[in-house]
Amino acid sequence: MPKASKVLDRVLVLEMVRVTEAAAIAAAKLIGRGDEKAADAAAVEAMREALNNLYMDGTVVIGEGERDEAPMLFIGEKVGSAIGKGPKIDIALDPLEGTTITAKAGPNALAVLAIAEEGCLLNAPDVYMEKIAIGPGYPADLIDLDKTPTQNVKALAKAKGVKAKDIIACVLDRPRHEQLIKELRKLGCGIVLIPDGDVAGVIATTNPNTNIDIYMGQGGAPEGVLAAAALRCVGGQFKGRLVFRNDDERARAAKWGVTDLDKQYDLKELARGDCIFAATGVTDGSLLGGVKRLGGKLTTESVVMRASSGTVRWVKGERRVD
Fold first, then answer.
1. Distance CA 224, CA 178 (A)
2. For the residues 162-185, what does the mean pLDDT come to?
3. Do 57 and 85 touch, CB atoms closer than 8 A?
4. Tell me, what DSSP letter sits at residue 20?
5. pLDDT in tens, 248-291
6. d(CA 94, CA 101)
7. Sign of the C-alpha dihedral, residues 23, 282, 65, 220?
8. Sequence-separated (6 or more) residues with CB below 8 Å from residue 223
9. pLDDT given for residue 2 in this prediction
10. Number of other residues whose CB lies within 10 A of the CB of residue 62
């Protein structure tokens, strides 16, 4: 376990839940309304307001994009009520992970947040990341992005004492994964195709109830850092490598301090030291139930984890609608 951070002690664990709850409740008002931008904007504004009520000197290192692309919660934005005097906190966030899911009332939309001491979260640019993840309890470095999908699946199957065809993989349902899906199907693997929400997909590998053994494929790099923070708290393995489609994306990475563009990042390189991860369900999913209105009350389901203690707290909230 990493050493407990006194800096993070100043920002109470449950305060992080209040932040993700605020974003989830705001986004939930637009579930099924078909307006992705409105749902995202509502979540962003609610999360920003909640963060600014906390006593900290926070810096957004994973956010909604760069300043000229995102009016709120952009990379580099300062948040908190004690800027310049409070504990220095780096923040990775996705106020609404699954904007399309929310607009279409699909499963697994989340409001997510991770915090760590200054300098402990990778400033990942808003590009793709090749990812592979498994849950806890396996030999170190069992998975590797330099191996083929077949090699990784067979290594995992051997460690589990099962056949490759018994492995179930979670993959984003995207055209770019056509060859990956063909290779997995050739092995006889089961594949859970998800329309969005790869943070939930990665975390699912740590929960035996999901039956998901491994997460594979390309998704957003910011979501990779968030997922890595979660795995730091509950255990597991994660490897990530940035994927660049053009020179503009390479330049963006260099701007945020990424010098080795071909580097394969380990879990502890994406989220170092002590860290806290929190998520609240927006719509029902495998990890959390969504926001519900029951009579005159709103109910929420959240999870908050801390790396230094390895604790996972499941939080059910209930509040009056007014």
1. 21
2. 97
3. yes
4. H
5. 888 888 887 788 888 999 999 999 989 999 999 999 988 899 99
6. 14
7. positive
8. 94, 97, 129, 198, 199
9. 78
10. 27
Structure tokens given for 61: 């290192």
pLDDT at residue number 12:
65
Q: Return all residues near 254 (Cβ < 8 A) that are at least 6 apart.
A: none
Q: What is the pLDDT of residue 66?
A: 65
Mean pLDDT value across the chain:
91
Residue holding tokens 């290594």? 155
Residue listed under structure tokens 């109470």: 12
Give the C-alpha separation, 27 to 40, whole Å. Answer: 7
Q: How far apart (Å, rounded) are the C-alpha atoms in residues 62 and 121?
A: 9
Q: Which of 221, 135, 130 is nearest to 177 (CA)?
A: 130
Single-letter residue type at 307: A
Sequence-distant (6+) residues with CB within 8 A of 215 are: 131, 132, 133, 134, 169, 170, 171, 198, 201, 202, 204, 205
Measured between its terminal Cα atoms, the distance across the chain in Å is: 42
Note the pTM of the prediction, 2 decimals.
0.90
Backbone angles phi, psi at 10, to 5 degrees: -75, -25
Rounded-to-integer distance, Cα 177 and Cα 175, Å: 5
Rounded Cα–Cα distance for residues 130 and 41 (Å): 27
Closest CA to 278 of 297, 300, 256, 294: 300
Residue 231: helix, strand or coil by DSSP? helix
Quick one: tokens of 272? 């170092």
Residues contacting residue 240 through CB under 8 Å, at least 6 positions apart: 129, 130, 131, 145, 221, 224, 228, 264, 265, 270
* The pair of three-digit structure tokens given for residue 85, joined into one six-digit string: 């005097």
What single letter denotes the amino acid at residue 268?
K
* 89-140 pLDDT per residue, tens: 999 999 999 999 999 999 999 999 999 999 999 888 788 999 999 999 999 9
Place of tokens 């968030």: 226
Give 208's DSSP letter.
G
Q: Please identify which residue in the block is written with the tokens 């309890």.
A: 137
Unique residue bearing structure tokens 């106020």: 95
